[in-house]
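User: Structure please.
Assistant: Input sequence and predicted structure:
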Amino acid sequence: MSQRKYFGTDGVRGEVGGPVINAEFALRLGYAAGRVLAREHASRGRPRVLIGKDTRLSGYMLESALEAGLSAAGIDTLLAGPLPTPGVAYLTRALRLVAGIVISASHNPYQDNGIKFFSAQGMKLPDETEEAIEQALEEPLGCVSSEKLGRARRVEDAAGRYIEFCKSTFPNELDLNGLKLVVDAAHGAAYHVAPHVFRELGAEVHAIGCQPDGFNINENVGALYPEALAAEVRARGADLGIALDGDADRLQMVDATGRIYNGDELLYAVVRERLERGKVEGVVGTLMTNFGLERQLQRLGVPFERAQVGDRYVLEQLQSRKWLYGGESSGHLLCLDCHTTGDGVIAALQVLTALRRHGIALADWLGELRMYPQKMINVPLQPGLNWAEHAGLNAARAEVEKTLAGRGRVLIRASGTEPKLRLMVEAEDAELAERCAKQLAGVDLTA
């Protein structure tokens, strides 16, 4: 894959008013994407694209600019308004569109925003399409003739369609009657969706993080700050809490005691339920997935593979292996038997399926899963140092892995944002993890 100038692992993202997240760039991006999509789908008549967004104030500006650029390229635009990222993926498929566009910076604060694309199949755009859009961005902004300009219209029932889709992934023979839930939408894109999904399935729902004002997205609420949800669950005497992030593709859950469950634990909850009903071909995690999950899946005879950090890479591994289940500790969970992309609401429904089907509490359902204590130490990294071939570090790693003897693991990786080396050890007990991590951190990387 060639070096990208604008597209990262999850579209284009940055600070509003910066080099790429501004009205001028969004206009050019809409035009460039429109030209590429028009070429790729020339046999399908006039192409149509859906635009959805989260609740950031800057979404209005970017939506209008993208729409103008797409119209100038001869693309019709459907405007969904605030809608979770996975909702855009679903409607793109359901309405037989050529692409979906999401305006969101996911879990970032309101000062940031992003633009990402879904293909007609409801998946991330192929690399070659993103590269073609990047090339088209270098060309002058133009406009088709007046009679070929794209039209725009609102999809008034976008949220309702997506609510029904989410509910369809929960078994018809089950309901949530008698269940008291607290649902936290992080003042984000699911604020008018998530509470309705669980209410319509029978739960008593108390909603928090559902009062967006354009600035408060992810602010001390949602999947990034599940402590707020835990406190509310305890205060309300609720059975469970469900926390999403700003674009609703991440999930964290809380039980009645206020205990927080992360993506690794929730992934296991889903996989165990599927195992009760048949075979699970395999599961994909990431380099950061807890070793305890890997060990438990091994005990159950379920193959496990690690991808790079990022749900894009988890999805790529799942597709290449033709597996269905994967996820990240952060709460991106993929159930490809339900949806083409990570979906926090649908993932929560899969966990609830297990609990309702077996009449069991979340802690008991995860009873056999033993998460391993983790110790992370960051050490300074000199620019240009080839740490992967550092003799002293490799020798220390070999010693630590001999000490762990299959009872833990070592992960060493360079930070992507600062000049540091991240040294992580997971082991059966916290003392062993800390001792081994300190042994690695004691290596003189200047020698």
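The first helix runs from residue 23 to 40.
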